[in-house]
Amino acid sequence: VFTDETGIAPGNSGWYFTEFTNILTTDNGYVSGTWITQYATINRVNRLLKLAQNFTPPPADVVAYNSVIAEARAVRALAYLELEAYFSTDMSNNSALGVMKLIDVPSIDSPVLPRVTNGEIYSLIESDLNFAEANLVTNTNYKYVTKSLIYAIRARMYTYRKMYTQAQTNAQWVVD
Q1: What are 131-140's pLDDT values in tens digits?
Q2: How far apart are CA 160 and CA 90, in angstroms?
Q3: Please, are residues 20 and 7 in contact by the beta-carbon 8 Å criterion?
Q4: Burial class (CB within 10 angstroms; exposed 0-12, middle 13-18, buried 19+) of 93
Q5: Checking phi first, is residue 22 left (phi over 0); if not, alpha (psi -120 to 50) or beta?
Q6: What is the DSSP letter of 138?
Q7: Using CA atoms, how far apart are residues 21 and 27, in angstroms rounded to an integer?
Q8: Calpha distance 154→78 (Å, rounded)
Q9: What's the CA gap between 95 and 149, in Å, rounded?
């Protein structure tokens, strides 16, 4: 509701009017909810990745282990894309301000992270998706991360970035 992807309907009686102004403030439940939910997801993925570094799977389980890591990284990529969609100043500009880049598990006394450029976030998203594509066990169950989801995330990211050739290539992969 609170992004430029919607508009006020002719019959609107004033409900959600402030959300249609494209002004995002921290006291708005939609804004804070989106921010908190996506960063909670990113934090959980980062915790899993950090703990996974302390575990060496038996040789028979390496493929499954890597697939779990791949799924987690794909989920993190999607969370970052959601954050970019709502909070970037200009998604098509790699130098524009994006969101905070959180790739570790913060401690209670960690400093506040600054926002970074879109290019830095897109680089992380692409890295996560490339890892996921290379390590994901083939799966068609919609309840899990699939290669179609990876390509769909890429298509959406490239569309936001106005890189339409790459967007079409990835979207066509999903359709095919």
Answers
A1: 999 999 987 7
A2: 9
A3: yes
A4: middle
A5: left
A6: P
A7: 15
A8: 9
A9: 27
| Helices within the chain (DSSP H only) | 29-52, 62-87, 118-135, 147-160, 164-175
Tens of pLDDT, residue by residue over 81-91, are 999 998 998 99
- All residues at 6 or more sequence positions from 139 whose CB lies less than 8 Å from its CB, including other chains: 145, 146
Question: What is the token pair recorded at 23?
Answer: 């002004």
Beta bridge partners of 97: 117
Alpha-carbon distance of 170 to 176, in angstroms, equals 10
| Statement: residue 67 has pLDDT above 70 | yes
Q: How many CB atoms lie within 10 A of CB 154?
A: 25
More confident residue, 109 or 75: 75
> Left, alpha or beta for 114 (phi > 0: left; psi -120 to 50: alpha)?
beta
